[in-house]
Design brief:
This protein is α+β, with helices and mostly antiparallel strands and 457 residues long. Helices cover 38% and strands 16% of the residues. It has 13 helices and eleven strands. The strands form three sheets. It has a five-stranded antiparallel β-sheet, sandwiched between helices. Strands 1, 2, 3 and 11 form a four-stranded antiparallel β-sheet that branches. It has a two-stranded antiparallel sheet with strand order 7-8. The longest helix is centred in the last third of the chain and has 34 residues, at 422-455.
Length: 457
């Protein structure tokens, strides 16, 4: 506890002496790791339906401070690393289930045989920036390191199209929506079928995630898969090949345009995807392919917990330009935010002021088509059901969803605040650090353990 200020140290001692603190090392409930837990007050009572006899009762009066704390569930690593880790894990399993198959998550293992690609759609150029173009030096004449702070910064901020950049971000979700429409049309065209006939024979499923480039422009990574008409359980028709899917993606991306009308001093614009379109086939894990199922699922999951703060901006709304100085936002993202605030009056329906901290982007960071695989909601419900079963077992209570169950549970909950006291925050930080340390050690030792298993007689 060296280095703690007296107030925090006093609060740590208070928490350590509070009732129930001895349960923390054994149970390690998620809210102990959460950076901003939700506080609830209330009661639950489980009765026998026939007799009305109380089988179990619970009240938050028995909790420290008279409040039950539950994890916030925020996906942003900048807000809550613990909950973001859980969110990334759920996304990993969602994406992986659509690649390798998982009957429990709605996809058979035969989905592995369906044509699928990993596509990256980017924004066009809004002006030259410092970059790392292969083995060549940047336009500024310097060979930048991978973590050089100037990467993504315009060579000449005075001529950079900041208005165009934030308007593109703001309409990126529209570009994606039109892309999915044109993709189905291009597939039908290349198959020599009408759109109706192609739809009756095949289905395109996808899962995507948005990522910010260093220059502050959003781009999308997407797993795109060919299925039969009934989804992942149905093999695609013979004409639905990997080459046809790849060609259709490229043609559809080239066709997409979104018109932005002129307003004030801003000219009319026609937005489109950038020329840096990458489409790579996804190979089966363990066969030496460059892009594997494991790598794709891990990559997508990684970026579901990140947002515009990776460019130097903040993860909360900014009301005015003066706040940029107080928050210490670097020059390039600050100019993008200022462009959002200036353009809000010209395009009020685009809500650029509300999404200025996101550099104009207002879409969902991760989305999927209905039949790609399971849903995040289903994964969370499975986890909640598992934890509920763990709590019922020692109490001898039956599953309330069982048709033969003879119990009735009545609950009353009320919101009572959020966050940690200074001492609780210090404990949560240390618990997260220790858990991450253990995970890092396990990750480092896993290859050695696999080698030992392979060498065993």
């Amino acid at each position: 506890m060296a280095g703690l200020d007296p107030a925090t140290l006093a609060d740590v001692l208070r928490v350590a002496g509070s009732p129930g603190f001895d349960r923390i090392p054994r149970t390690d409930p998620p809210h102990r790791r959460c950076s901003d837990p939700i506080h609830l007050q209330g009661t639950t009572v489980t009765r026998d339906k026939a007799t009305g006899h109380v089988l179990h009762s619970y009240s938050t009066d028995t909790e420290p401070g008279g409040r039950l704390r539950v994890a916030c569930g925020n996906r942003r690593a900048s807000r809550c690393p613990a909950c973001a880790w859980t969110y990334a894990g759920d996304t990993y399993h969602l994406i992986r289930a659509g690649l390798v198959g998982d009957p429990a998550k709605g996809t058979p293992h035969t989905v592995r045989d369906h044509p699928r690609v990993f596509a990256t759609l980017t924004a066009p150029s809004f002006g030259p920036v410092h970059n790392r173009p292969g083995n060549r030096p940047c336009r500024c004449g310097t060979r930048h390191d991978e973590d050089a702070p100037e990467l993504g910064i315009p060579l000449d901020p005075a001529t950079y199209d900041y208005a165009g950049a934030v308007l593109w971000n703001n309409h990126a979700s529209d570009l994606w929506r039109y892309f999915t429409i044109y993709l189905r049309r291009e597939i039908a065209k290349r198959a020599g079928l009408t759109q109706k006939a192609a739809k009756e024979q095949s289905r395109v499923s996808f899962g995507k995630v948005a990522e910010y480039q260093k220059r502050g422009a959003v781009h999308f990574h997407a797993v795109i898969r060919f299925d039969g008409a009934d989804g992942p359980d149905d093999p695609p028709p013979a004409w639905a090949t990997l080459d046809l899917l790849t060609d259709s993606i490229r043609a559809a991306a080239a066709r997409v345009t979104v018109d932005v009308p002129a307003a004030g001093d801003q000219p009319a614009r026609t937005l489109h995807w950038g020329t840096q379109l990458d489409v790579q086939p996804i190979g089966a894990f363990g066969h030496g392919e460059e892009i594997t199922e494991q790598a794709v699922a891990s990559y997508v999951a990684k970026y579901t917990t990140k947002a515009a703060e990776t460019t130097g901006t903040v993860d909360r709304r900014i009301g005015n330009k003066e706040a940029l100085v107080l928050l210490g936002v670097p020059d390039h993202p600050a100019r993008l935010i200022e462009a959002c605030l200036d353009l809000h009056a010209l395009y009020p329906d685009r809500k650029l002021r509300d999404w200025a901290h996101m550099l104009g982007f207002r879409g969902h960071f991760s989305t999927k088509s209905r039949r790609y695989s399971t849903t995040l909601g289903a994964l969370r419900q499975t986890r909640a059901d598992y934890r509920a079963a763990q709590q019922r077992e020692p109490l001898g209570l039956p599953d309330p969803d069982d048709e033969e169950a003879t119990t009735l549970t009545l609950a009353h909950w009320a919101y009572a605040g959020h966050g940690h006291t200074p001492g609780e925050s210090w404990l949560a930080t240390n618990i997260r650090r220790d858990i991450q340390h253990n995970r890092d050690i396990a990750r480092e030792e896993l290859p050695a353990l696999l080698d030992l298993e392979g060498a065993a007689p």
